[in-house]
């Protein structure tokens, strides 16, 4: 369908795809935000006379973006989420209030939060009783014209979720961190940083930050936390196991959460999680729901860890060594579901075993493969 | 694209910001990849299954370049076609690529630059790269720094991107590299010395004034020159002005930095992060392939951002297999680490592959062994064949049981029969009649082919039955008539060959020599040498006692001196006869001095000589003679002080020296008096000169020269006596003015003291060949114009001479 229609805002799509490919957009939230913005442009410029046209268009764009950088899972996630929301909006708009009760299906996150309403449920959609006429021969644009405001709102929902994710995750921080606890963390995850800082307002506790070689992002984390008035220790990665017996909780961030409850996280996370398991220390993962990915990594795909250049391990200036040493420098660790105790998301806390259910709720099945 | 509402604003911003331009020199101007480059330009050779040009485009696109000019010469049509068909020419790529075809007479990068100038395509600062670049450096960052620097310093014309590596890094070219002398604070490149591998270069000469002017200097021999240059608009025009610049590094950078006329600065950007290297030869082809496979170029790696738009899956041990499931690999085939296998390739039972790159649609026969082999598309390797450290073109058939040993290059379309045996470093191509007749540089190719065909009798390699191949001769060094560039000489080329360790060549290893060589240096060489000269030691060597320095100058300059003298004489003659103003004459002299790099004293000698010889001798009438002298001296005397430094004592010395050897010896006294009258020298200067032992000719051998000097000295003595007399007369003349006189005297003495101090300073400075502080803008412009004129004139003269 879209083969005869050029993709609207093609340049923006190509631009983002190129930047993703060249790793000029890095970080899961950054990539997700950029993707939503591009999708919004695509929708606003798209011409369609029925919902299938729009969906296939979005899927095509989404596929291009997701394939441009398969390691940034959030790109695909956001596309799926937007598709999901668009379908939902369309259904409510097309069938009017009659179908509205179907929204009250059982939701695990609602169950966990004991009936607290989800954010996009409160949106006053019941007013949207527009007469939609698909494939109107007289005015092919009327469908798009009528639906677009609703769709934009649906996309805005995703955008809002992304923008408020840190606040929402750290809302419950004080319930997880208690006074005089010792927390171990690794890497410089913005989510974890916000979480710890927010807990710092209420509690007096200590954070041990592992250096997180070879990127040493732990250094920034330690600086940032101690600037916020939290008592912080920076330790080398190697001492993680030795310190684990004194640690009350391990709080780490994630790059992507897989449907089986496992996750990709910065190198060293596996080390921390395994050490925590050995001491039966709880491992808490702070993350936004946009990182939920409908993938399983059942075969431990080797390339999935995203091997970066060796220069942070072995300098390029070490001329004679470069020829003789093969350096393997993975950016991520795969942390299996058995090593994680709980995921704290912007929409409630979930055990690894129920992640598959969350994934099913957030995305439509037909979008699993874009 | 931003939403529509802000699109207008964005456009305004874009208009303000200049379009970032880049120029790719797609021709290599050498033949290191022969015979792979028969029928194909080098930039279309694949590395890791994407053409070099694609890698270059990707490197530039990464930096946000919007407009690219591709300068192509040989096989320009193929390059154009490749560009047209690549993904880069799609509108969505955001690149505007303009291929420019230069004349066949373009033989060097310098010619190409002149071509760029005549095309007038460059409107702002641009990036200059070669068409064989693999880089992930953020060049836009370099451009930003370059522009910032330009804002304060208009003379910073170029920023070279270099990458730190060890001196013996695999990617660093052993045959062709450079020593960079940098100022660590400003990262200005103070000096560049090209280094070639064979014959090994052990000395690098660094002009002394660099050490004097910069408190801290870094001398580095461990940088990979990425050949990414951020140039300003002037650079092509500089090439145009200096028509003898051929190579960008060896001629242009070296020339600009050693010239004290151009007053241009070149800076270096030492890339700390990122990767950049040039596929300049087969050796670096091998090294860069390895770098790509071991992910140094991340994110430009086969499984992520492959410029050829292939998709590869990254497996344990840096193995990359095409992702579309079209690779047919036998269960018993062994695929070792650091290997890339293209789509639709099949690998039969028992084949073993390691450290290799295999193109698309290849067939590897059962039991074949590939080690460090680079195999392009559509090639078949027969059963049990062995290919080691070699590059095999596309569409090649290697018969079963063949052996291709280290360092072989096999051109496209070669067929090797059964059990062929290629010797090490053999270069093989199909016979001439099998290659497309259409070739770009006809004559040269013709010669080359003739040589290849003549060579066939002496071939020792076995090409197998049914082969269509010819073996190319190993070296071109046998034909003496052809003047081979040092860099392209056979032995130096060996250092750039794939798989060649060149262990039989006598190479002192370039990395470590720098330390020991300082001991063996002869200290009395005038231009200071590269060693760990600290600032203090350079200062001591600068203030050597005068005679030794001047003798050295004499020694060194003797050859160039004659030429210089005649030049000066000619230019002064012109000035005298055509009645130039003193200003113009002095500018001309200055440029001459810089052009032939002679010490100031030499100029003074020449000027004094010219003036003295200018004075007509009037035998009979002394008063008329005096008049003539006065006429010449008042007209041209000021020129003596306008040549770039004022040193009256030296003037007197030089005058005496000259007169003593000239027929105008009797005029010495009168001339001295005349220049005294013209305020060119004054009393004290004559006294100082007189007091010097050398002026009496003491250190000269007895002979007419010494006698002359002695006579001059005697005349000087008389003059001084006269001065003394005058003074005492003056003193005695009026009693009541004695007090005033005393005051005057005191003042005079003070003045003398001051002058003495200044004079000492002058002495110190005049001994060095000092690059003076930058001239004022107007002066500089004038000087430049004069240089241009002089260059043109010389060119004209040079043209005339052969007739």
From TrEMBL, chain A:
Pfam families linked: IF-2B
UniProt cross-references to InterPro entries, sorted A to Z: eIF2B_beta_subunit (IPR051855), IF-2B-related (IPR000649), IF_2B-like_C (IPR042529), NagB/RpiA_transferase-like (IPR037171)
GO cellular component: cytosol; eukaryotic translation initiation factor 2B complex
Main localisation: cytoplasm
Subcellular location per the Swiss-Prot or TrEMBL entry: Cytoplasm, Cytosol
The keyword Chaperone is annotated on this UniProt entry: no
Keywords: Cytoplasm, Initiation factor, Protein biosynthesis
GO MF terms, alphabetically ordered: guanyl-nucleotide exchange factor activity; translation initiation factor activity
Family membership: Belongs to the eIF-2B alpha/beta/delta subunits family.
Subunit structure: Component of the translation initiation factor 2B (eIF2B) complex which is a heterodecamer of two sets of five different subunits: alpha, beta, gamma, delta and epsilon. Subunits alpha, beta and delta comprise a regulatory subcomplex and subunits epsilon and gamma comprise a catalytic subcomplex. Within the complex, the hexameric regulatory complex resides at the center, with the two heterodimeric catalytic subcomplexes bound on opposite sides.
Stated name of the protein: Translation initiation factor eIF2B subunit beta
TrEMBL record, chain B:
SUPFAM superfamilies the record matches: ARM repeat, Nucleotide-diphospho-sugar transferases
Coiled coil stretches, renumbered: none
SUBUNIT field: Component of the translation initiation factor 2B (eIF2B) complex which is a heterodecamer of two sets of five different subunits: alpha, beta, gamma, delta and epsilon. Subunits alpha, beta and delta comprise a regulatory subcomplex and subunits epsilon and gamma comprise a catalytic subcomplex. Within the complex, the hexameric regulatory complex resides at the center, with the two heterodimeric catalytic subcomplexes bound on opposite sides.
Keywords, comma-separated and alphabetical: Cytoplasm, Transferase
Ranges where the W2 domain occurs: 558-733
Biased composition (Acidic residues): 436-451, 514-526, 723-736
CDD domains: eIF-2B_epsilon_N, W2_eIF2B_epsilon
Protein name: Translation initiation factor eIF2B subunit epsilon
Chain intervals with Polar residues compositional bias: 529-545
GO-annotated cellular components: cytosol; eukaryotic translation initiation factor 2B complex
Family in the record: Belongs to the eIF-2B gamma/epsilon subunits family.
Residue ranges, annotated region (Disordered): 433-460, 496-545, 723-803
This protein's record includes keyword Transferase: yes
Composition-biased stretches (Basic residues): 740-803
Transmembrane stretches, start-end: none
Localization annotation: Cytoplasm, Cytosol
Alphabetical list of Gene3D superfamilies matching this protein: 1.25.40.180, Hexapeptide repeat proteins, Spore Coat Polysaccharide Biosynthesis Protein SpsA, Chain A
GO molecular function: guanyl-nucleotide exchange factor activity; transferase activity; translation initiation factor activity; translation initiation factor binding
